[in-house]
Design brief:
11 helices; 4-stranded antiparallel sheet; globular; about 400 residues; alpha+beta; binds alpha-D-galactopyranose; about 20% strand; 13 strands
Length: about 400
């Protein structure tokens, strides 16, 4: 639950002053995985899990950040922000603040309280939700407005240059720019996008395998390097190819032998995934749900076999969904190596689908999963705590 009224009370109790409150959602990606940093296409939707940020000014020159999720507070000097990350939850809000300072803003003292319900480490972009809600809060305190795409870029820089995770733009972009009841086909080259309505007859069922996922370090970074290796090989022959967005399956056939076997497989995933993502948006827009489901299944196979970013539990969760009534399409969503699967399900079947999937997964793996029925929600925004609450 993310309850703006509860966040407001918490902030007032702790800091003795009324906050301004902002909300930024997590996301689920319907298709288009590890294509964002290849300047390709992704199709995420913001979901109704979010982080709330309450902010109020201080006169002692300090930045005091309290996380209700961690039950911890940290304090910094506004005039002397740390230059790099300390492997701590506060890296995300401080990283965003440091990027604003780098852009020339004079950062005043403030109190920031954070409280969210995006499940941590589950591939639903809890960190982007913290970054984007913090960015909205701090820019509002500074009296400046960043358009959504620019706000997303700022948060991505915080993640890349401060936190040290080599992620692309997808998560921050959709958190800042999501649209209620829609997925976004985003072109990660120029950040233009097309809205793809999710009809009321289709439900988003998100199934958490409970296997922890992380973007910083490890496998995510290795995959990104392999993608870059493949790009460099093609680029030697075709200098106009600086990102896999511009490569074709013919390039892979022609130059694949010059790549390591892993780089070739990773590149095959990215090149084919870009095509699938654009086709999936067309299918969703034209209500061709059969084709959409087929593309999601193909995407999962490619992600699991060529990109090798799945895990046994994720494959099992996708497999167990296959013959359940109402399934349109299922695949592992997000950065990979754990986390959640996304299932598009006929709305009237969704509650029983969720229950059966949970039972089957628990019986097969011995792990009790969390299964969420979600809705595509709007992007980050200010919340007027006196009048309304989100969710
Ligand atoms: C993580 C990253 C994104 C994207 C996905 C994979 O969520 O933060 O930028 O690369 O993985 O599609």
């Amino acid at each position: 639950m993310h309850d703006p009224e509860a966040l407001r009370s918490l902030h007032v109790e702790r800091f003795h002053v009324e906050p301004e409150v902002f909300a930024a959602p997590g996301r689920v990606n319907l298709i288009g995985e590890h294509t964002d940093y290849a300047e390709g296409f992704v199709m995420p939707a913001a979901i109704d899990f979010a982080t709330l940020a309450g902010i109020s000014p201080r006169s002692d020159g300090k930045i005091v950040i309290y996380s209700q999720n961690y039950g911890k507070e940290r304090a910094f000097e506004a005039a002397g922000l740390p230059p790099s990350a300390s492997q701590h939850w506060s890296d995300y809000p401080i990283g965003v603040t440091a990027m604003l300072a780098q852009e020339g803003h004079r950062i005043p003292g403030f109190s920031l309280s954070l409280w969210g319900d995006v499940p941590l480490g589950s591939g639903l972009s809890s960190s982007a939700a913290v970054e984007v809600s913090t960015a909205l809060a701090v820019t509002s305190l500074l009296g400046v407005t960043y358009p959504g795409p620019q706000l997303a870029r700022l948060c991505q820089r915080a993640e890349n240059h401060f936190v040290g995770a080599s992620s692309g733009i997808m998560d921050q972009f959709i958190s800042a720019n999501g649209a209620k009841d829609h997925a976004l086909l985003l072109d990660c080259r120029d950040l233009s996008y097309k809205l793809a309505p999710i009809p009321p007859s289709v439900s988003l069922v998100i199934a958490n395998t409970m296997v922890k996922h992380t973007v910083s370090g490890g496998e995510y970074t290795t995959r990104r390097k392999e993608v870059e290796e493949a790009t460099a090989v093609i680029g030697r022959h075709r200098p106009e190819v600086r990102f896999l967005r511009d490569a074709t399956v013919e390039d892979l056939a022609e130059y694949g032998a010059e790549m390591s076997p892993n780089a070739l497989k990773r590149a095959r995933h990215v090149v084919t995934e870009n095509r699938r993502t654009v086709a999936a948006a067309d299918a969703l827009i034209s209500h061709d749900l059969l084709e959409l489901g087929r593309l999601m299944a193909e995407a999962h196979r490619s992600y699991s076999q060529d990109f090798e970013a799945s895990c046994a539990e994720c494959d099992i969760m996708v497999e167990l969904a296959q013959d359940l009534p109402g399934l349109i399409g299922a695949r592992l969503t997000g950065g990979g190596f754990g986390g959640c699967t996304v299932n598009l399900v006929e709305a009237d079947e969704a509650p029983s689908f969720a229950e059966l999937l949970g039972q089957r997964y628990a019986a097969k793996t011995g792990i009790v999963p969390q299964i969420h029925l979600c809705h595509a929600s709007g992007g980050a925004h200010r919340v007027d705590v006196r009048i309304q609450s989100v969710k």
